[in-house]
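User: I'm new to structure prediction. If I give you an amino acid sequence, what do you actually give back? Let's try with this one:
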Amino acid sequence: MKYRNLLVYVLLLACVSLISCGGGHSGENYVLIAVNVKIPYWQSAGSGFSHATQELGLGFNFTGPDTYDPSAERDELERAIASKPAGILISVADAGTVKDSIDKGVAAGIPIVTIDSDAPTSKRLFFIGTNNYQVGLSGGKRLAQELKGKGTVVVFTMPTQPNLKERLHGYQDALEGSQIKLAHIEDIKGDPRVAFDTTTQYIANDKKEHIDAFVCLEALSGKEVANVINSNGVKGKTIMAMDAEPETLTWIQKGVIAATISQKPYSMAYVGLKMLDELHHSGLKNLDSDWTHDSFAPVPAFVDTGSALVDKSNVDAFVAAAKSMSGK
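Assistant: Good question. You get back a string of structure tokens that encode the predicted 3D arrangement of the chain. For your 328 residues, that looks like this:
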């Protein structure tokens, strides 16, 4: 009888524990807002976000504009705040456009964390993503090797996006003192066709101004530049890409793109969700405190998820690893 009573007691404890653990996440919903939900980079982030919520038994919403549209992203953020989620992850297309909305959400008691691209003057809690300045340094050093310290370069970017500003800064510092000139900074406005058309124009006018290299600071333009270079049979041009979209990797395998720098969008969203959930359950007070400059802050200022340079020497191994992870 004693053993039977003990067994019943243990089972009751187990049931209470299970109910407590399961109920701890009951009704919680988290939101991930991306710059452009249609591109593979953000679909990878959405996958990481989804997997993390499934592990914890949480509700989630992956949303954002399907083109590069900072105002539309702000509107998505406003809608997310109105739904009163347990936390929000957002990649910032334009820091100035979403700053007030981020501050509004934090004032309403919603933990907001930026990923991939930051809004450092807002009241977001912290930033998770790549050290984008270091990405630019790495890319710039590789470009200098490719051009042997001399050449004229076209850069494709979106100037209002904070992470791309940091990458450009890294390239500029890496090339300082060389004879490599970043002669043209082109805004693609989130439209890869701009990169395609602009590259076509530079190739057509090559006798007037010889371009030695094209640097792509975001994921969309590298494959477009490679398409133009390849279809026109142009030789001797260096292309530095960004991120690991399948087409970009294929162009590296074919020797058209010299290198790209891979980020970890899956990890950003996966880790971001886990940290948001911890913040929600820890009951962090004073969400709008200046934690970045507080020596005793309970949260980090920056979580670096890392990056890696991919070129002809390691692209096959990278592709194989990606297939293994995705099961495709």
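You can read the tokens as a compact description of the fold. Here is one thing that stands out. The longest strand covers residues 179-187.
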